[in-house]
Design goal:
The chain is α+β, with helices and mostly antiparallel strands. It contains 7 helices and 4 strands, in the order ααααβααβββα. The structure holds FE2/S2 (inorganic) cluster. The site of FE2/S2 (inorganic) cluster has 12 residues, from helix 5.
Length: 165
């Protein structure tokens, strides 16, 4: 990839993973790898992005910084402030809403003692509202650690939270 002249906020393992994605696209189309590159950068920074990491991704891909910021600030899967060790995303779209997501959201906020968009004081859980996760027939759905928890009830949600380390 491009020589990174300044000190990069991207670790060597992150750069190696990004290289694998860049290799999937034509040589002059590195910008196409910006979404996975930001995911990788976020993974190697404990689940969130900083301005300097976003800039490093742009530099590494050889694209304008604004192009990386546009993506990082548009999609809700990118975190622009630190998150907890477990990020719970409750779907609030129509099917989940009809199947009790509002009540489940109230329950989760009460159980965790935080509002949506916040992290528990012990840094354990960040609670988010997300758009349709594509698992509508099993509504309501929570996404956490690349896994879906479907047909979730307050009782099942309690068990899920109590099982988190
Ligand atoms: S509406 Fe919740 S998964 Fe589609």
């Amino acid at each position: 990839m491009n020589d990174v002249k300044e000190k990069s906020a991207l670790s060597q393992p992150a750069r190696e993973e990004i290289d694998k994605w860049v290799a999937k696209y034509p040589e002059d189309k590195a910008q196409s790898a910006v979404i996975p590159a930001l995911h990788i950068a976020q993974k190697y920074n404990q689940g969130s992005l900083t301005d300097s990491i976003i800039e490093s991704v742009a530099d590494y891909l050889g694209i304008p910084k604004i192009a990386a910021f546009e993506v990082a600030t548009f999609y809700s899967m990118y975190e622009l402030k630190p998150v907890g060790r477990h990020k719970m995303g409750l779907c609030k779209s129509i099917s989940c809403m009809l199947m009790g997501a509002d009540e489940l959201g109230d329950h989760l906020q009460k159980k965790l003692g935080i509002k949506f968009g916040e992290t528990t004081p012990d840094g354990k859980v960040t609670l988010k509202e997300v758009e349709c996760l594509g698992a509508c027939r099993h509504a309501p759905v929570v996404h956490m650690h690349n896994r879906y928890y479907e047909s979730l009830t307050p009782e099942k949600a309690d068990e899920l939270i109590e099982g988190l380390e």
